[in-house]
Design goal:
By secondary structure, the protein is of the alpha+beta class.
Amino acid sequence: MSAEPETDNQTTSHRLVLPADANHHGTLYAGSLLRFALEAAYATACRAVGPEANMMLRRVLTIECRRAVPVGRLVEIRGTVLQVKQCHLVVGVVGMPLEGQGIPWMDGLLGFVHVDEACQPITLPREIIPVADSPLWRPLASRLEKLAAIRGATADWLDPG
């Protein structure tokens, strides 16, 4: 582990909602929403872990669509690390509010595990500090705590080699 913990683990991505991403209503299809969220979360996880990152999606804990997004809209998705264990981290993603709307159009929690070439969990190569208390991330951090209480810790069974 490096002596210097990583603290700047927020990412921002932008996506244009294209007709191929739409459902029969002309708004963002749920499968495309999940793809957008996964890509943003994966980029966040890899950036936090650094150049040694070999991340594998372990679990989609929750994804919530809060607003329909029409074709032609440019959306912004922010991601940050909310929880870190030995080889596992949970990334929160937030679709920033669309113009004229007060709440995010989507949010979610996705868990990733750092793996070796044989896809076996291995310890993260450096210390990663989850986001400090922040108004943007507080609702997702609270949801993660509730899910952990209901389902148990998200990474307790993982045994890094």
